[in-house]
Sequence to fold (459 residues):
Amino acid sequence: MPQPLNPSLIDDELKHFQNITNIDAIVGIEAPNEYDGSHGSDPDWVGTIRNYTNNVYSKVKANQRLKNIPVLGPSLIDLKAYEAVGSLDSFIDFVNQHMYQWTYWPGWNGTNDTGARSISWFLDKLAPLQSPSGKAVHATETGYTNFLDLVGLFQEADGKYMPRIFAEFFRRGVVRTYKYELIDEAQPGREGLFGLLTNNISEKPAFRAMKSLIQLLSDKGPSFEPFFLNYTLTGNLDNLRQLLLQKRNGDFYLMIWLEVSSWDVNNKTDLYPSPQQVTVRLQPQQHADISNATLYTFNNTGHLSINQLSIINNQITFNATDKITLIKFNNGTANSIPFGVYRFLSKNNLHLSLHSNGKRKTIPQLKEQHWRNRNQHWIIQSEKDDDHGFYRLIHRETKQVLETYNETIRLNHWLGLDCQKWKIDLLPNGFYQLSSKHQNKQWITQNQQWRIDWITDQI
Fold:
């Protein structure tokens, strides 16, 4: 039997947050989960959840270490609960909702008796009850179960819907979306099959698609001012959705999909809606020089395909489908990597980071990554003038630079030699390749592809 909330435990719970070394890793502190359905013997659960939320908010904002962490409202199960609890505007930074469409597609616009609700219903009807002032929403739960009852669907449709959920929620202004859940639970029935991974850690189509999407769009770093891509879409635009994103290196990513049903709710079978031909026409750019484009598409099992596109007469024609499609437009006028401190993670094993003990002429090794280990930090500094497009890779701890030597690499003092200047190329798979300017020599090892993670711009 669930027990009523105990406000005396709040201080001990907040101590766990205070003791986390990397406080920036905490993106929010959430009020209790679905207390309207799990309050046990509490006769005044409405008063309890209101007072508890108020106490959490007051204590967080009074704590110098925690005060900048957003406080989310409590998630509740249904409309009557939100009406009963009422406004929490004074106690929260963000509204909290569990936004499920169940067997329906993410952009479905309706309600039904299984509890499925449209995005508009959540944002227009439910959110104002918790925040009449209009604070933004975190969707702390969403997703699909693969248990085939009234609210379940097959893995294939789930694999199409999950990337679209994140895209559609973002398009509609939801600040953060959280998938319920990572791994199938070891229990029978609906609750056991919500995972991106099966219980034996095998990949579902939704996992494969989301993994590739995260790799493609990851762009850690300081805030920047994006600029404008002037384009138009023509062709069959029925039910077409679009999002334009930009990375710090200036490249644009145009995300396009058909917001249609991929699952027959009544007959419980997968659907295969026809693709629609769409043309992207680029108009004269003020800040961008589009040099080439890459097409990223997903198949019905979540696997990614990559194709180079020809821009003919300033336009590209392709097929939009019920799966996410991405077109990357390479901005030829932009620097590839902004100045800052980074880690180099091996594509073969993302747990391993390029590490050096800092001794001159020693060969860097791959070691288990540690976020704060300065021996695994590299300053990327762009060269100028005749060497524009090349970089110095500076070891943060010793300020020595990475250089090629014979068939390997090592650390040395900066001498301005070509073997100490590096080209960093983004590959179609989202990883980077390093090449020395010395004889245009690629550093050839089994670990020649890297994920480059930004750490800070504070040297």
Notes: The two ends are 53 Å apart (CA to CA). The helical segments are 10-18, 45-61, 79-85, 119-130, 155-171, 205-217.
